[in-house]
UniProtKB/TrEMBL annotation:
It is an enzyme of class 2 (transferase). It is found in: Plastid, Chloroplast. It comes from Populus trichocarpa. This is Pyruvate kinase. Belongs to the pyruvate kinase family. GO terms for biological process: glycolytic process.
Amino acid sequence: MSRSLHIFTPSNLTFPKQPYPKPSSNRRFPATTFSPKLISIKASTSSDPNSSTSPQVLISNNGTGASGILSSTPQDYDTPPSQSIISDSSSIEVDAVTEVELKENGFRSTRRTKLVCTIGPATCGFEELEALAVGGMNVARINMCHGTREWHRRVIERVRRLNEEKGFAVAIMMDTEGSEIHMGDLGGASSAKAEDGEIWTFSVRAFDSHRPERTVNVNYDGFAEDVKVGDELLVDGGMVRFEVMEKIGPDVKCRCTDPGLMLPRANVTFWRDGSLVRERNAMLPTISSKDWLDIDFGISEGVDFIAISFVKSAEVITHLKSYIAARSRDSDIAVIAKIESIDSLKNLEEIIQASDGAMVARGDLGAQIPLEQVPSAQQNIVQICRQLNKPVIVASQLLESMIEYPTPTRAEVADVSEAVRQRADALMLSGESAMGQYPEKALAVLRSVSVRIEKWWREEKCHEAMELPVVGSSFSDSISEEICISAAKMANNLGVDALFVYTKTGHMASLLSRCRPDCPIFAFTSTTSVRRRLNLQWGLIPFRLSFSDDMEGNLNKTFSLLKARGMIKSGDLVIAVSDILQSIQVLTVP
Ligand SMILES: Nc1ncnc2c1ncn2[C@@H]1O[C@H](COP(=O)(O)OP(=O)(O)O)[C@@H](O)[C@H]1O
Ligand SMILES: C=C(OP(=O)(O)O)C(=O)O
Ligand SMILES: [K+]
Ligand SMILES: [Mg+2]
């Protein structure tokens, strides 16, 4: 690209000469000294990419200055699926919980970290699901390791009904089983206790209804051949440990060395001389034939996210994405790569680059690498995701003790706050919400710890600036990125109340979220599916709103709708950006 571009970062922006007050504890600007309403910076796109007109940045002030034009290549945002566009153009959709939060506590106190809850027997009823939505669940996760498709279908139906009837935008994430080694379902028992010194049989034989005592089935046919006498066998990443004593045909006799509770379908790994053994099971496909059927199910149910277990390479993600694209033209399902194996760590950047997001799946990850390496892996994954602009979920054992107890341990609270401090997009509950005694309480802990830690770090200004490399491939993408970086910086420096982003595909909203600004981001989008998907991303409050290409009209409409519902008020200071007309506008709410 030979043409030069004046990117309007705050440092080269010429603001009006009038002095304006430094942001103070009172963030509001007196209208007399500074009238941000009238400042508009636009990067309009020239229709001719080869135009020789030199690009220029101009800012209009008080309506009397020159208007701003910055020429660039034409932007190419794709049109979202028409099917899910809601035609009612006179309303704005936001869930009741956010509405109350904004009304009662103002913008600053809204939670930026998103919450994912695994749905299981403890939470699959409509009322329990509603309680989770009211409690702040942004995404409901169904784990295809457990339950039947019919069971999952009913959960999806209920979440849909909740969204329709109560105005929530709870997204659905389907998590595949993957083909690593795991135990069978314990013949319907909820758990099995292995005591110290007991001899248990791990067998590749399937048991119909009757499971012999102290016997568990293993799903991997090569298991009995691959293990050796003396190997150490870890259930659920070491929650229970055995030593392999003897092999008798399909049966492997093991002595329990670390007692504990084994859950149905718990993951099984075996270790030799301190290293994980990966024999033929390393050749198992990432997506098993059962997974493909589950994926077809997810596509036909129109889930919002598909999380892929035990990803080893970027190819499997690329392949799945084209499979989904060919089968679901109307919906756009995001693919989340679960980072939970040694291979996924080896190919981390390519995998994340190919995916629409990632999950730090610490349960299995901690069974594949030494536990003391999990925290640095987590930090690294969170950081790469932010740089590559992909949402990231920190998962597993965040509040494990709350499966049984109503209060978390201090260590768990510290773990949650660390993930919040790293500014991961989302935190996930697994057993705590799927089968624990206190799902709502666990969610409340995630909520209150998130809000508290976010506020603390904002006030202390402790966050280090992160280098955000260019992620887009086109010139227009670069403009959007620069706009978002500048807008977020301006929002922090000016102490604005909220950032508004008008986005058709959600991309511009994600770019803004990536900057992790101090104020919340109101993301307006015209489709319900994009609104649901944005619900996974840090700091975004997604609204469904029909809007046009006329930003002036969009802003006026948004202000009046939000004011009518008491979500903003006259005098609030807002910065608006959009991917319709690449622009930054600073406004006070009239
Ligand atoms: N759909 C379901 N049906 C029954 N039990 C479930 C379901 N989903 C989750 N669970 C229970 O919750 C526990 C924790 O869930 P999760 O972490 O997602 O699975 P896993 O323990 O297999 O990694 C599971 O071990 C299982 O006991
Ligand atoms: C989230 C995880 O995956 P799953 O619960 O499916 O094993 C994990 O291993 O941490
Ligand atoms: K899974
Ligand atoms: Mg896992």
